[in-house]
Amino acid sequence: xxxxxxxxxxxxxxxxxxxxxxxxxxxxxxxxxxxxxxxxxxxxxxxxxxxxxxxxxxxxxxxxxxxxxxxxxxxxxxxxxxxxxxxxxxxxxxxxxxxxxxxxxxxxxxxxxxxxxxxxxxxxxxxxxxxxxxxxxxxxxxxxxxxxxxxxxxxxxxxxxxxxxxxxxxxxxxxxxxxxxxxxxxxxxxxxxxxxxxxxxxxxxxxxxxxxxxxxxxxxxxxxx
Length: 225
What we know:
alpha+beta
């Protein structure tokens, strides 16, 4: 799979996940829409397209980004907000307009996110940014997505669903075998031993930065106990 295909899959997954939180609005002919009744994870990009024709109740024809016609039966479509997709005269999605973030406060971003966003503001493409940052093109795409979420005040999928993700991880650990738990504990001990100085330095920096909050939480804990 090429880097372009990886980016396409990442953006498709992000759009499909975001559409779950969008209120239902029936699309009109020529508008971008998302098929909501299918439960299949494969070919998720087919669920995104322009509504071309309504044949009957539950029967539609859509055109994907690649120009492929899809004939749907017993389906329902939700309109994709028009401000999410900027299109050309031919109806194809335009590239993200990063100039709207030029006046935003980039201090809320991590160093990597700030470097990626500043690079896009300077006119660099994904390949140039990947070479400059020493990462893959897919990592650049994910980093820019996180930066845009923070600057837009939306929050990433991981932030919005933190409790669900943590619960899923806890349930997964319960299914671990004793051998797996032993390997995990050995790896943890080895990591702590090899990176002891780095961990101590990080703890000191974190304490110095969040001292007031830590002391306040300690007082609350003592009162409860």
